[in-house]
Amino acid sequence: MRYNDAILNCILSIFNKFQGEFMKKLLFQFDTDIYPSVFDTVVAYDGGADHVIAHGGLTPENVTPLVEGTIFTRAPRDKKNTAIFVGGSDMQAGQALFKAVQKHFFSGFQVSVMLDSNGSNTTAAAGVAKLANSGEIKGKKAVVLAGTGPVGQRAAVMLAEEGAEVFLTSRKLSRAEKACTAMEKRFGMKLTPVEAFDCEARAETIKEAAIVFATGAAGVELLRPEHWQNNPFIEMMADANATPPIGIGGIEMMDKGFDRHGKIIWGAIGFGTLKLALHRACIARLFENRKQVLDAEAIFKLAKEMA
Q1: What tens digit of pLDDT does each residue of 249-297 get?
Q2: At the top level of CATH, which class does the domain 2-115 belong to?
Q3: CA dihedral defined by 219, 223, 224, 228, rounded to 10 degrees?
Q4: How many angstroms separate the first and last alpha carbons of the chain?
Q5: Contacts of 226 (CB under 8 A, 6+ apart)
Q6: Do 156 and 162 meet the contact criterion of CB atoms below 8 Å apart?
Q7: Positions in the chain whose pLDDT score sits under 70
Q8: Model's pTM, two decimal places?
Q9: Is the dihedral of CA 207, 210, 215, 220 positive or negative?
Q10: Which residues make beta-bridge pairs with 55?
Q11: Do the beta carbons of residue 66 and residue 30 sit within 8 Å?
Q12: Residue 228 backbone dihedrals phi, psi, to 5 degrees
């Protein structure tokens, strides 16, 4: 009888030891929009999640029971198999939700969490990492065109982190100022707001810029070819728009560090390969342990390693 008990105890010990390794990796997608992003769901599966459970219309006020469901279930050693992804189209709403989620964590009751509203962190990180890999950023003037959206704001911060003097444009100065203030408050980086209502105004803004990163809405041309092709100061350009007409006329969305008119050009698909790989890598990292917090800083660091 004692021999059988010993075998049973041994089996139970092995089962308990490896139980966590066979647990399903659950990613809870917390979206600030009513309908959670399908793009984010697909990439989450490609990044290694076994199941993605998406919830839309979330706010700091209604997220509490969902967070509690993630932290009060599995044992501390097994919590690495549960993670939270915060997304949505509104960066400020996402940042607030990301912060609210973490307020519910305490010792032993925490899961990994990632913020990527509208692909802001992964897209900006991939684009800036490719630029940093293509030439010198430190000490250069950089202009982020139509930079008040999620990608533009984060790209501006990352360029500033690399040592550039960054100018962020918008059709309305008040919007540019609001975005710059928000990023300075969050990251401590000083950005300069600029009003640039049309192509001619934007062309004037980039006259002495060495780096131009276009982050405008899909299908909106921010610069025409004549606005940049003969500019002797521009060294590198990137455009995050892959929907024709793309943001910078005269370049191609497939450009991968190509030389056009003496400038190094990165199109949306050109650095998009890194963006997708980075997004997947971040998802995989969420399941390494229960203490990952992936926001702009950590994601940009990983992007530079991958680039």
Answers
A1: 999 999 999 999 999 999 999 999 999 999 999 999 999 999 999 999 9
A2: alpha beta
A3: -140
A4: 61
A5: none
A6: no
A7: 1-21
A8: 0.91
A9: positive
A10: 30
A11: yes
A12: -135, -25
